Structure to design on (348 residues):
């Protein structure tokens, strides 16, 4: 029997009686990070990292939640667990599971580039590595983030020179704060959507510095918005809430902006390729660094990436179904679901 199983409720460790990032209510849940598809409401108890705990409580309310430090070892029914930085968003973790000489790692969502906001990705050696494949195609290769922020700030300056406001969309937890850290605040004022500002307050209380921002609202005069930047969740685009703003240029920050059709479908003026997930090279490097002899591929381009690992790299690889969403789904967008090749599935 494998150390971890993919059940109808989530990734299950039978020996310990716990689930990792379960998508159905369970007694005990170990959570990799605070995004809604990985930390869901309804579990009897939660365990996560100390950095992830405040935002999970903010999202889920008065739940029974405990936390551990990165690298701290916890034994549950004879099985050893530890949380290690995944580099995805603040507090995000890979979960190492060790029992009777066998080691598995559930990587959750991750990226290898140090964004200066999240705890940097830490390779964890294991026998079996469970990896996402959100951007598991060779077309997805990211620029350095400083180059992308150079593009964003240049766009903002140009909009201001034309008397326009700049509106940049990115999801509220992780991406929005990363965008804020990369903006040149000397260009102008920075406003945020209420959902983002509420998250900012939680993160600031943890001692993570963010630039000064103002909550966007109908109480703000339109002239104060002119030349300013607003960070909003993608779900706000095209809604009546946007009517409060003066003429603006709209940008989207996502790995999916590497596919031009995505930007056109969103009717944005600019697309900036910036993702909190690993690109093609990052996925492959993470697998190499893990030393894993067996890889299980989850949400994203699972069939394509699994075949590549087997046929090109000679790694034993399988696909597993989860109910985690990719970055596009977190942006509340239809379209590129990253599920092609579902009919060609090799299960663990």
């Amino acid at each position: 029997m494998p150390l971890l199983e993919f059940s109808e409720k989530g990734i299950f460790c039978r020996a310990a009686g716990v689930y990792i990032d379960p998508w159905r209510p369970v007694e005990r849940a170990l959570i990799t990070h605070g995004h809604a598809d990985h930390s869901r409401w309804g579990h009897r108890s939660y365990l996560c990292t100390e950095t992830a705990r405040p935002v999970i409580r903010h999202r889920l309310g008065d739940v029974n939640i405990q936390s551990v430090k990165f690298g701290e070892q916890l034994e549950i029914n004879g099985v050893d667990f530890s949380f290690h930085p995944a580099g995805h968003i603040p507090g995000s973790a890979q979960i190492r599971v060790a029992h009777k000489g066998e080691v598995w790692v559930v990587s959750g969502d991750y990226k290898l580039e140090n964004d200066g906001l999240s705890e940097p990705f830490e390779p964890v050696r294991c026998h079996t590595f469970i990896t996402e494949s959100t951007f598991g195609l060779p077309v997805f290769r990211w620029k350095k983030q400083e180059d992308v922020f150079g593009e964003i700030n240049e766009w903002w300056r140009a909009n201001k020179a034309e008397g326009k406001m700049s509106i940049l969309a990115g999801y509220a937890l992780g991406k929005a704060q990363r965008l804020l850290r990369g903006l040149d605040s000397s260009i102008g004022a920075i406003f945020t959507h209420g959902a983002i500002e509420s998250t900012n307050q939680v993160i600031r209380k943890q001692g993570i510095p963010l630039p000064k921002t103002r909550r966007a609202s109908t109480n703000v005069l339109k002239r104060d918005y002119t030349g300013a930047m607003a960070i909003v969740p993608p779900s706000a685009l095209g809604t009546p809430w946007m009517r409060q703003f003066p003429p603006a240029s709209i940008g989207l920050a996502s790995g999916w902006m590497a596919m031009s059709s995505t930007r056109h479908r969103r009717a944005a003026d600019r697309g900036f390729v910036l993702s909190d997930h690993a690109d093609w090279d990052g996925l492959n490097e993470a697998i190499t660094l893990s030393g894993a002899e067996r890889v299980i591929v989850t949400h994203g381009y699972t069939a394509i990436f699994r075949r590549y690992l087997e046929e090109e790299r000679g790694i034993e690889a399988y696909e597993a179904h989860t109910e985690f969403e990719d970055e596009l789904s977190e942006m509340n967008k239809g379209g590129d679901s990253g599920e092609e090749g579902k009919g060609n599935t090799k299960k663990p």
Q: What stands out?
A: The domain at 5-140+276-330 is CATH 3.60.15.10 (Metallo-beta-lactamase; Chain A).
